[in-house]
Specification:
The protein is an alpha+beta fold. About 30% of the residues lie in helices and about 30% in strands. It has eight helices and 15 strands. The strands form three sheets. Strands 4-3-5-6-7-8-9-10 form an eight-stranded mixed β-sheet, sandwiched between helices. It has a five-stranded mixed β-sheet with strand order 12-11-13-15-14, with helices on both faces. The protein has a two-stranded antiparallel ribbon with strand order 1-2.
Length: about 270
């Protein structure tokens, strides 16, 4: 998968070329589901899809903005051209681009790219997790193990599906228990928080509501960095379609976080 990983990194660069000229300039629209979208989202996904169609015409593609193309049952790309559109719309540089390749439904490579900072976390199965910036050589990164919740740095992307921001069809997640018991807690932007777990900066990160394109690229990076990734219910099978994501630096810390996130009725 090395050639595919190098191609995925180029896809992230193509997205950046569409996103940055529109940064702080794009008008925000609302999609049918109420989520935000901009011209940058659409232009970046178009660029990525065109490149995939040229290089790998038999591969499937699933993207946030334009859905699913004819799918190769073995290899499919899953893309979120602009993860964190709200941050982008606010002019805050905490948004990213997510590129993943699935083999028989399992994410085997992932790229988490932050266009403004030029920081990228990426991994392929069996190849380790790597971090690079525009002005430095790539370096291999890993999670920080051996941290208990009482001393851990933990984040969440928001209050979705909690008592403060209920979500239809979802039990309220008691995020306050993690906030109370963590060594330090912050709200952090979308894919950025999981990339920080890969780098050992954060020790756990919580996303209560996620789509496949939000999850797919993160999973290989966390796994190759030595971390743990599951749904809120602890599910690892078909994680890309699990609907939520919790990542952490060790099984022990992960268990502590999941126990506190379990709804009272569960």
């Amino acid at each position: 998968m090395q050639a595919e990983l190098e191609f995925a990194l180029k896809l992230a660069d193509l997205a950046e070329a569409e996103i940055l000229p529109r940064y702080r300039r794009a008008a925000v629209e609302r999609k049918a589901d109420g989520s935000e979208v901009t011209e940058a989202d659409r232009a970046a996904e178009h660029a990525i899809r065109d490149a995939i169609a040229t290089r790998y015409p038999d591969h499937g593609v699933l993207g946030e903005e334009f859905g699913e193309a004819a799918t190769d049952h073995r290899l499919s790309w899953v893309i979120d051209p602009l993860d964190g559109t709200r941050w982008f719309a606010l002019g805050v540089p905490l948004f990213g681009t997510l590129i993943a390749l699935l083999e028989n439904g399992d994410p085997v490579l992932g790229v988490i790219h932050m266009p403004v900072s030029g920081e990228t976390v990426y991994a392929r199965r069996g190849g380790g997790c790597w971090f690079r910036t525009r002005d430095a050589a790539p370096q291999r990164v890993s999670v920080t193990p051996g941290v208990e919740l009482a001393t851990a740095n933990v984040s969440a992307s928001g209050l979705h599906a909690t008592a403060l921001e209920p979500a239809p069809g979802h039990a309220d997640v008691p995020l306050e228990r993690v906030i109370r018991d963590a060594g330090a807690f912050r709200f952090c932007g979308d894919c950025l928080q999981h990339s920080l777990v890969c780098r050992g900066v954060l020790h756990a990160a919580v996303d209560t509501i996620m789509a496949p394109w939000d999850i797919a690229a993160i999973v290989p990076c966390i796994r190759e960095a030595g971390g743990v990734a599951t749904t809120l219910a602890g599910q690892t099978d078909d994680l890309v379609n699990g609907g939520s994501l919790v990542t952490s630096s060790s099984p022990e810390l992960h268990a502590e976080v999941l126990e506190r996130l379990r709804p009272a009725s569960g």
